[in-house]
Amino acid sequence: MQRRDSRPEVTTVQAAGPDWARGCDKCKGGLIDAPDASYFSAPLYLVRVFQARHNLLTICNCRAGNMRRQFLRNAWRRIESDEDHLPDAFRQAIEEEVTRPTVHFERIAA
What we know:
Distance between the termini: 48 Å
Strand order of the largest sheet: 1-2
């Protein structure tokens, strides 16, 4: 077993990928002013799928935005066809949390 001080240091960097995937000067990863989703209990990709389904996301028209739009549509299609099964209670909880009315997307206690 290696001693802790002899292991190489690992730094966190942004995931590698093509430059276009980061978005353009109007967006970040294809989303324009995306609402904060850090407080949701569900995985981020599911939160974004449900936000898109309820027209709560502004998706850019750049290449990253088009790819994000395609991903979100396909993810919703998989959920609807039950290819990606979500238990009803979990799905309902996400729906309620995503559609809860807010002023500036801040969390409102249930």
